[in-house]
Design the sequence.
């Protein structure tokens, strides 16, 4: 199996640190608002990756942090006259509910930043003692000049990255120096913790390395997140962990999901195209959205639109209709099938090629198109059903037919009769158009 790592910009064989055990960390949400469909895309992708690795026999421990202290949370608390803690708890609960609705159950542990303050403070102390960090009047900062490899994940030199960072506070030595601890005076409307540098709270980046070091140690197998987190967040994580541990690489495989756009534009509240998972699920089926996500490779950009989601639903319905027909034909034990082997091999080859779910889905349609229901044996049908059940588990999508308020059998019979009459009158173009439109809706006509 080959997996692409952002750090080396190439695929490499999946070799784990501890035999068949994989430690995987994925950046979790900052819980100040409801999760949006971009979050859904990322977490569906990593849930599927975990499912497939476990199918291959790996024991995967999937860790995700919850950023429950941050400027965004504090600002939302002030706007709504609530405590920052109440805001964080509310949206953490809603986030996990949203994930469960999307059939994302793979996370073994959600680690809150506020539950790991001793580990955060300890890591900062060690960075100071080793000369990588310094204290100023307003906080503690990592000194980028002390870590020459800063920028290696983003594949750029430090001087090329300055324009991408906030303009420095006056107390920082360098624009790229980032906060490890922010000093704050205790106040009712802003949470603070005691530290060797006075009251305050941690910077954004330090929570992740403190958490992963606590659970995984200084090196582990897989780190995931969205493409937008490469710089500065993931870059800072590497800098902190490799500096304090003296070990590299911090992570063997850096996996990043591509951007999600809405009808060709970046999703944002200002463009009025910001869609939360809760908004989405009021109108669309969760499994349809999950199938839509898996229809694009996790590293590629994905364009969300009603038409694209509708097409994903119709495509999923075709698989479900096939599954229903093959289930009716299936009898006996699901022995090995020579007929199935070509297509199952293509499926696994695709998934072993950096979790290429679109190619894996294409292999299923190759199987569907090659199946002659008049010729298929009951034993082959049983093997196919077993294979599709496995695919269903890997994708986290049921292939059982979902009963919906669709057209009645009588209406479908009428459409089929009209189409047959058109064929008899040699109006093939119109009859083919009806067939194609029915196929898009998940119905198949076999002449």
Sequence:
């Amino acid at each position: 199996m080959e997996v692409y790592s952002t750090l080396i910009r190439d695929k490499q064989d999946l070799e784990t640190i501890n035999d068949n055990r994989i430690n995987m960390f994925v950046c979790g949400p900052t819980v100040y608002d409801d999760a949006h469909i971009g979050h859904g895309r990322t977490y569906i992708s990593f849930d599927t990756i975990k499912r497939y690795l476990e199918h291959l026999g790996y024991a995967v421990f999937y860790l995700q942090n919850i950023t429950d202290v941050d400027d965004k949370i504090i600002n939302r608390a002030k706007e709504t006259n609530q405590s920052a803690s109440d805001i964080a708890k509310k949206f953490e609960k809603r986030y996990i509910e949203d994930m469960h609705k999307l059939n994302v159950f793979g996370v073994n542990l959600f680690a809150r930043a506020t539950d790991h303050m001793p580990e955060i403070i300890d890591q900062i102390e060690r960075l100071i003692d080793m000369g990588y960090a310094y204290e100023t009047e307003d906080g503690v900062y990592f000194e980028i000049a002390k870590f020459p490899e800063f920028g290696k994940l983003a594949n750029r030199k430090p001087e090329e990255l300055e324009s991408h960072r906030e303009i420095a506070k006056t107390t920082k030595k360098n624009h790229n120096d980032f906060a490890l601890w922010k000093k704050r005076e205790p106040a009712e409307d802003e949470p603070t913790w005691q530290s060797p540098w006075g009251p305050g709270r941690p910077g954004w980046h330090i929570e992740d390395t403190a958490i992963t070091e606590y659970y995984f140690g200084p090196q582990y197998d897989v780190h995931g997140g969205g493409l937008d987190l490469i710089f500065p967040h993931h870059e800072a994580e590497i800098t902190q962990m490799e500096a304090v541990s003296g070990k590299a690489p911090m992570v063997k495989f850096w996996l990043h999901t591509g951007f999600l756009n809405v009808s060709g534009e970046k999703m944002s509240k200002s463009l009025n195209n910001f869609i939360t998972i809760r908004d989405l699920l009021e109108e669309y089926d969760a499994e349809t959205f999950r199938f839509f996500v898996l229809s694009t490779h996790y590293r590629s950009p994905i364009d969300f639109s009603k038409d694209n989601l509708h097409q994903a639903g119709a495509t999923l319905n075709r698989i479900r209709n096939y599954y229903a027909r093959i289930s009716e034909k299936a009898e006996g034990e699901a022995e090995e099938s020579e007929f199935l082997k070509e297509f199952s091999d293509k499926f696994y080859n695709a998934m072993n090629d950096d979790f290429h779910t679109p190619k894996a889905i294409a292999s299923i349609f190759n199987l569907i198109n090659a199946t002659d229901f008049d010729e298929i044996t009951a034993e082959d049908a049983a093997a196919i059903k077993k294979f599709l059940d496995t695919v269903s588990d890997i994708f986290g999508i049921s292939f059982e037919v979902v009963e919906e308020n669709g057209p009645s059998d009588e209406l479908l019979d009428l459409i089929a009769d009209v189409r047959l009459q058109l064929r008899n009158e040699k109006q093939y173009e119109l009859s083919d158009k009806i067939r194609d439109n029915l196929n898009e809706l998940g119905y198949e006509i076999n002449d």
Remarks:
- The longest helix spans residues 306-329.
- Residues 2-257 form a domain with the Rossmann fold fold (CATH 3.40.50.620).
